[in-house]
Design brief:
With about 210 residues, this protein is of the alpha/beta class. About 55% of the residues lie in helices and about 10% in strands. The chain has one domain: P-loop containing nucleotide triphosphate hydrolases (Rossmann fold, 3-Layer(aba) Sandwich), CATH 3.40.50.300. The chain has a 5-stranded parallel sheet with strand order 2-3-1-4-5, with helices on both faces. The chain starts with a strand and ends with a helix. Bound molecules: adenosine-5'-diphosphate and cytidine-5'-diphosphate (CDP). Cytidine-5'-diphosphate binds next to helix 2, helix 5 and helix 9. One of its GO terms (molecular function) is dCMP kinase activity.
């Protein structure tokens, strides 16, 4: 079984994907980390974010088993990831890796922006997870602070809105719900309630 989960920044898709993978005994890939890892490598080496050839060569050396959200969580890495995510050639390379991952037995949960629309369009279960920008900014702020990283609510809210706009309006694989995705707004739900709602959707869909 493949479960495809998409949604805007800090909507809770990664949390749900991890919980669903554990619940159903599936592999999990946070595809945002693949974009973050390429962006972090470019930033660390002082390389330009707009050079497709360089980004592709970094992507070719990615090791999916070594992606670490704690290392890649920094706010500026998310911003840089969203900038390089407009490069079609880079996306082709990363989508190849992500599709290979999705073939693992007995199945996988993938979360990102284009899983239901591009990476796994035939997934039997698709979720599109949202929450209001204010709720998402609060969650991301608390998450960063709890990891001892700097976080300012007002600038995170402004940046999330900008990033959503960039992700939704790009011409390649824009953020949008697949036509057959189930919408899950978690603005008023805690993690447990969101998980229960997601399991209900999966049970009905499969
Ligand atoms: N329903 C929820 N209620 C409260 N906090 C949540 C909920 N879902 C996720 N979170 C918290 O919000 C933050 C962002 O969630 P995450 O799953 O990383 O989002 P995404 O993968 O969409 O960026 C994390 O700190 C997570 O623990
Ligand atoms: N499948 C995906 C996953 C992420 N991305 C890009 O990578 C950026 C970072 O993704 P992420 O999922 O780690 O971001 P958060 O939602 O965790 O903040 C996003 O803003 C997108 O621009 C993408 O284009 N396609």
């Amino acid at each position: 079984m493949i479960i495809a989960i998409d949604g805007p920044a800090a909507s809770g898709k990664g949390t749900l994907a991890r919980r669903l993978a554990r619940h159903y005994g599936l592999h999990h890939l946070d595809t945002g980390l693949t974009y973050r890892a390429v962006a972090a490598a470019l930033l660390a080496r002082g390389l330009p974010l707009g050079d497709e050839e360089i980004a592709i060569s970094v992507a070719r050396n990615l090791d999916l088993s070594r992606l670490d959200r704690d290392v890649l969580a920094a706010h500026e890495v998310g911003e840089a990831a969203s900038r390089i995510a407009v490069l079609q050639g880079l996306r082709d390379e990363l989508v190849r890796l992500q599709r290979d991952f999705a073939k693992r037995e007995p199945g996988a949960v993938l979360d990102g922006r284009d899983i239901g629309t591009v990476v796994c369009p035939d997934a039997p279960v698709k979720l599109y997870v949202t929450a209001s920008p204010q709720v998402r900014a609060r969650r991301r702020t608390d998450e960063l602070l709890s990891k001892g990283k700097p976080a300012d609510y007002a600038s995170i809210l402004a940046d999330l809105k900008k990033r959503d706009e960039r992700d939704s309006s790009r011409s390649v694989a824009p953020l949008k719900p697949a036509e057959d995705a189930h919408l899950l707004d978690t603005s008023e739900m805690d993690i447990e309630a969101a998980f229960k709602a997601a399991v209900d959707i999966v049970e009905q869909a499969r």
